[in-house]
TrEMBL record, chains A, B:
One of its GO terms (molecular function) is transcription cis-regulatory region binding. It comes from Paractinoplanes tereljensis. Residues 3-57 form the HTH lacI-type domain. This is LacI family transcriptional regulator. PROSITE patterns: HTH_LACI_1, HTH_LACI_2. It comes from the Bacteria. The keyword RNA-binding does not apply. Keywords: DNA-binding, Transcription, Transcription regulation.
Length: 339, 339
């Protein structure tokens, strides 16, 4: 007969609750107690039974975080923040890379793994709003997608943020402004929103947008930004005097191409990105950017999920949407060297 | 009575094996078949029973990857590669951030979650070799740690790679070479190995190492590199003419401090890092670095684990250790602008 929780408690000389705390990974267990319980678990070959735990209402203590790709510093940094935000609750966060593929996101939200995870934080890149959440796994969505969506949602106002970036360039007296990162397909909602914000700010200043200065990309990485900048420079006689790049890696790639072509940043071309990743603080020139408050995104995501899991909010409460603020970080790539 | 696999198969009009392939996330299932099975799963509320699946020897199709931190681009990029390498096997990879804490690594290797994962790829930062692998969960270790360790192991020869970085600086005629990233505690094995390689290369050229030019750090990020470089410059009359930084982020931080202090890289100070992260290809100056073959690390890690899981290698086969090659990428931060 397999060992039960109370066998472990009895052997370790602690309460069942203490064993449960260790098994669930809660942090407030003294190291020596944890070691004693672990020794008893090892000796008895005890394996926690997730189904039994769920029936007792304890949950697995494990949530999943699904992001399109960890190679993107924004998602890698956000993942780290969510792990930290979940720690005081004693949650383990398992991170999954979806590559933005609809079928992987579908597998997650369909609840196929609901025996091993309690809830899901998902940054969708492939699924349509209508497809999300048929499986009943408590889920919080991240990103600009799915306002009025089917689940709790923490988002940034991408259009407003993009307009802020563009207005920063306009205030510096730049008029011939390019945008790198336009969508290459209609489902790229994040980029569509940022492009709308760019256009709105330009229109607000009475400026027409030269269509040759709006450059679509198929990826959001440094290499995509470097290639897009090269394409842009090849197809216009006169370079733009400023560029709004829809992610920081795109901006860092574009700046690299400027250096290779002998263009001074920001003397010839001012460049601003969008993400607020750490890399931009240390690059040369340091990168002006729009920084969503990622610490707060992480905290809200965990808190909203905890309310659903802990019953603090009933399942009947309709999906909540929280918009997190962003900041303009003006640095050397638009302002020049600060001495 | 809960729905069973064969109920799903019958409703979808497919074989039990096909349902099993969908549930296990195998990739070679036609999209329309997958959709049919998914519809049947949804309609019947079928939940796969992991215990039953394990009893049938099928495993969960899920492995865990544990890395110290995703904020580190090296680990974020490596995680992405491991997810890709696992894909042809139909595995789902769940990623966990341990923050290098021994207790989190212990929880993982102790097999407490063996009901929901089949195996583990672990980059240990907190545990001692003697502590690893009491739980019997098939595990592959990554990193420089634990040669002759208790499990299969994919590693880089950190000392040899550090010596290569140092010799590159020596070949450029630099003699007054600093090292940023020395260990601040004896358990920091990776850094201890890199420091040993640095010292060996210096000694091999008959050069003494000025102890003030060996700078310990408590973290390996850009901010740590920037602060270490500032400390270094403050405590010597004459700056070093070259620096070997033990990670790329340390190097990028150090280069930023050089820019702030009016030092030209590489004119005044040549800088080389260690990681081969994408960021260094696009930085200005682009970053010379030691690049472990991370694609091969990812492939070996998955292959070794697959052999243990699939029974291709019996449990009686002692731990195997594979050393993956590295390359010196000489770029602008040591060679200057290439035109």
């Amino acid at each position: 007969m397999p060992a039960r929780l109370k066998d472990v408690a009895s052997r370790a000389g602690v309460s069942i609750k203490t064993v449960s705390n260790v098994v669930n990974g809660y942090v407030h267990v003294a190291p020596e107690t944890r070691a004693k319980v672990q020794a008893a678990i090892d000796a008895l070959g005890y394996v926690p039974n997730p189904t039994a735990r769920r029936l007792r209402g304890g949950g697995t203590g494990v949530i999943a975080l699904a992001v399109p790709e960890l190679r993107s510093p924004y998602f890698a940094e956000l993942a780290g923040l969510i792990v930290r935000a979940a720690e005081p609750r004693g949650w383990t966060v398992l991170i999954e890379q979806t590559d933005g593929r609809a079928e992987r996101e579908r597998d997650l939200v369909s609840g196929l793994r609901r025996h091993s995870i309690d809830g899901l934080i998902l940054s969708p890149a492939g699924l349509d709003a209508t497809e999300v959440l048929t499986g009943g796994l408590p889920t919080v969505l991240l990103g600009e997608r799915m306002w009025d969506g089917p689940a709790d949602h923490v988002a940034v106002d991408g259009a407003a943020a993009a307009a802020d970036a563009t207005r920063h360039l306009l205030r510096l007296g730049r008029w011939r402004i390019a945008a790198i990162g336009a969508p290459d397909r209609p489902t790229a909602v994040t980029r569509t929103q940022r492009l709308a914000g760019f256009r709105a700010a330009m229109a607000g200043s009475g400026l027409a947008v030269d269509p040759r200065l709006v450059v679509p990309v198929s990826g959001m990485h440094r290499a995509d930004g470097a290639a897009a900048m090269a394409r842009l420079l090849d197809q216009v006689e006169q370079p733009p005097d400023a560029i709004f790049c829809f992610t920081d890696p795109l901006a860092l790639g574009a700046i690299r191409t400027c250096a290779d072509r002998g263009l001074d940043v920001p003397g010839d071309v001012a460049v601003i990105g969008f993400d607020g990743i750490e890399e931009g603080r240390y690059s040369t020139p340091s990168l002006s950017t729009i920084a969503p408050n990622t610490g707060r995104i992480a905290q809200f995501a965990v808190d909203l999920l905890a309310e659903r899991l802990g019953g603090g909010v009933s399942a009947a409460v309709p999906p909540r949407a929280i918009c997190v603020e962003h900041r303009l970080l003006a640095r050397e790539s638009t302002l020049g060297r600060l001495r």
